[in-house]
Amino acid sequence: MTDETAGEAEPASGSRRDGRGWHGWRTAAEAALYGPGGFYRRPEGPAGHFRTSVHASPLFARAVARLLCRVDEALGRPGALDFVDMGAGRGELVTGVLAALPADVAARARGYAVERADRPAGLDPRITWLPEPPAAITGLLFANEWLDNVPVDVAEVDPAGVPRLVLVAEDGSERLGEPVTGAEADWLARWWPLPAEEGLRAEIGLPRDLAWASAAGRVVRGLAVAVDYAHTRDTRPPFGTLTGFREGRETTPVPDGSCDITAHVALDACAAAGAPDPLRGTRPAEGDGSAGREPEGTPRTSPDAPHATPDSPRMPSSEACVPPEQALASRNTTSAPPDTPIAPPTPKNTARTPHGTAQELPGAARMSSPARLLTQRAALRALDLTGARPPLTLASTDPAAYVRALASAGEAGELTAPGGLGDFGWLVQPVGVPDPLETAP
Q: What pTM was computed for the model?
């Protein structure tokens, strides 16, 4: 990008345009993804472009159903049990979860799909379709790859060492705007400090913090979970993670509605924002209320490969290996030993997943809130999904059962694989109940 520092540029909030088409990435992505004709309003839905854990295997929905059952037990089996699917796409997850519940739980379950796109035809009539989550939730709020769809502004350090708002035109051209100030500057100082080195970049995650605080704050009793590709404060990538995807391929992000626009989530910041206020026993104040209006767009990606069309899947169906030319630029930065920094990202178009096998994300033990940060691998193993191969003896006693069990093990292996879906971050926030995943390592 150029080093223009335009006096005519918009303020750091990214909320206004300057009359010549330049605006902050938050404003640009909001229009490109969710405006009329936006990327996530297309009739084919997310599954027409890429696979998430939900699309990879029905085992994922079954594991979430087991988690909902644990929440149900912790709540004392209430007469009405809520399951809220944030960024529901076309309702695949909530449909799968309701179908996997035991009959006695299913009879009390109320399914909600939170999505800005229109309700798809033929959806289970038991599912309530909403543009925002219910005001009061008793049960499980599950945000699978939702927060990465909440648009954020981008900051870049100028030659004088000052972080400035990155402005973008509809064709993807960028330039520098005014210095980042106010709440956005405070957020950077706390969560993503930028050294005074020209060219360093950061995504300002404040809108995601507010969105999570708003969503998790609606859980009266139960559990709020956010699942996304993530990083923590000590391991932020030096040049940010903003990128685009079009037809299963990574591309330069262009805010014209032709491609997906995504960036990693600072889940540690979200966890702090969603923590109960110990002085009041409530969630933090939501400021001007904008959190409730944040995009509840479609969950998007898994961390081991870029989006793909149904004919060109993002990942092999039974393993988590990724062709280098299709590897996601910076989506796998959460697999590291406890209290050990996550490895820095590698150059663009290569996988950015360290090869550690630890289960808990850095920083989790230092958090003062009841929230925990885990890898997906740890969370799913705590939900009895391990990917273990069936015993060979089964092949001789019941060959058909062996083949089915082997296929299931392959799908579970994909969901929990290091270097792939298993390295997703899970933010687990209990509200008035014990942590149902406390058995995770």
A: 0.74
